[in-house]
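#structure-requests
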Amino acid sequence: MRRPSPRELSLVARALLTVAAVRVALWARGAGAVRRRIAARRVAGSAGLGDMREIAWSVDVASRFVPGATCLTRALSGQALLARRGAASTVLVSLSPGDGSRPSPHAWLLCNDTILLGGRSADFQNHRGLVAFRTDGGVERAPQARERSA
């Protein structure tokens, strides 16, 4: 196992602070407050593949150290980190098909039609989209699955 580089440590530290802050904000103020804070950032365009991979990786690592970091916490954290880099993204909330029991909600982070957080596109194909939260604060009915994984 190799030692992480200073850049990797910085990415994980930033993600850890963001995931922890989003987790606390979701608990204390709710998703609407978190989404408004993200929407306050000016986003100018899309993220490059390198940025998308860094953010997905760092949120995955950081989430292991934050108790209660749900899929919604992870997706909103990734969206916040992308917004800091000026990149637009969408958090999709869907319902799983369920395994004989009740369907359960799940959150996904998409950027440039690529799933960054939440699972694989094969998993997403089985979910029913409910709502999409854009970086600019817009809310719309979630499009049905057609995205690809990073």
